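Subject: Sanity check before I submit

Could someone independently write out the structure tokens for this chain? I want to compare against mine line by line before I put it in a report. The sequence has 504 residues.
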Amino acid sequence: MSVNHWIQGAEMPGQVRLQEAQRDAREHLAAQPLRRTWAVLIVLCAAQFMVILDVTVVNVALPSIGRALHFAAADLQWVVTAYVLLSGGLVLLGGRASDLIGRRIVFLTGLSIFTAASLASGLAPTAGALIASRAGQGLGAALLTPAALSIITAAYSGAQRAAALSIWAAIGSSGAAAGVLAGGMLTTWLGWRSIFLVNVPVGVIAGLISLRLVPRFAPKPGAGRSVDLPGAVLAVGGLASAVYALAGAPASGWGSPRTLSFLALSVALLAAFALTERVTRQPLLPPSTWRNRSLIAGAVVMLGATGLLVGTFFLNSLFLQEVQGASALRVGLEFLPLVVVIGVAAHLASRLMPRVGSRMVATTGLLIMCLGALLLSAASARSGYLTGLLPGLLVVGAGTGLAFPAASVTAMNDVTGHGAGLASGLMTAVHEIGADIGVALFSAIGTAADVGGLMAGGPTATALATGYRHGFTVAAGIALGLAVVAFLVMPAVRPAAGTRLAVH
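---
Independent answer below. Compare away.
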């Protein structure tokens, strides 16, 4: 018997059981026909698409919701914020729970909560009830998304994992754009409640299919089943304070006591979170996480790229509706080319990474996003869609489609075994937090040109056009800075060549 065989034979029983369970799950999946292999990824991506869709689908319907449920103007933003804060703030808890409890059970639990909360949102009789049910959707998303991503990470390897993660990244980026279209269509044709109720049959069908197709993975042995609830509360509180400060900054002023006090509270809560993670037994984000260069570099790029993409949706939605008088449905349709380009570029990214590495793909994508932002910054109130806006949108979409898969593949490259849930939770968290920061930041920039008009009920069209240009000038600078960071910090991950989506 060789030394390696002797060492393997001396493994702890728990490790042996874990490895056997993972091997059985892989063999079960690999033994199915190719259509069954695709089906597993499809059902996970369908659930994720539903979650991502709910980040943006509500935006177009907000005026209708406000009128129907008699929202105060200052409270309407919480229909969006309650969802994003809970999904982004608790997603690390969901990722950790999937490691400790089991990925499949956490995925199904999150899907069930999300579906039930969607039903409650669609039937909400009051403003408070809608905000509460939206928070429930955020909780379900915080469990569902990292569990689904960790299932993909554990079930696929090599070129198959790269292909699967590229598809997953494309779902994340295109889902946000598709939400604008879906929101416009559903609100116009079926009313605002339909944007929530449509999730119910999708969630039920996805749950039933998951029970049959999604493989079981054993939880981490000997870890217990406790999770870091204090850390989760501190993380959500810190993020909520930051978003609240950014959202109110245009009206109250960036140097006002309100803005500065909530930013200080955010820093204090997040510092307390960092301290808690160093001393707790089962931290949401173990200190060793920061030593994983691939994971942290990919997370930073994902955070910035998501903020840029969501900021692009926000500024263009505002510009098209308030400056150029477009309808909600027209705005959704005009985002369709962006969705298509993102998907095409994401497919191209999965082909390029084995040849040139993820660092070069991410850097190129971010530089392309910078170019697209510069094109959009040249638009004026009289710019036409085809000549003034569409070229910039297409270029931003192409850059996004390259950057997102490269960030995902880089981040998950060194992740194996029980760390998949934690890494998946972190990547989902930065995606949601990036969306939060992107909306808050570009909203502040877009409306800062006319604070007086904002206080009177809304900025003027001229001021919004000015804010649009300023916003994309800032976006170009951020994209350029991220490209430099990606080139200097990201490792050059080269997944094995090949695109056939099957499990070894």
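---
OP: Matches mine. For the report I'm noting this point. Residues 34-69 form the longest helix (36 residues).
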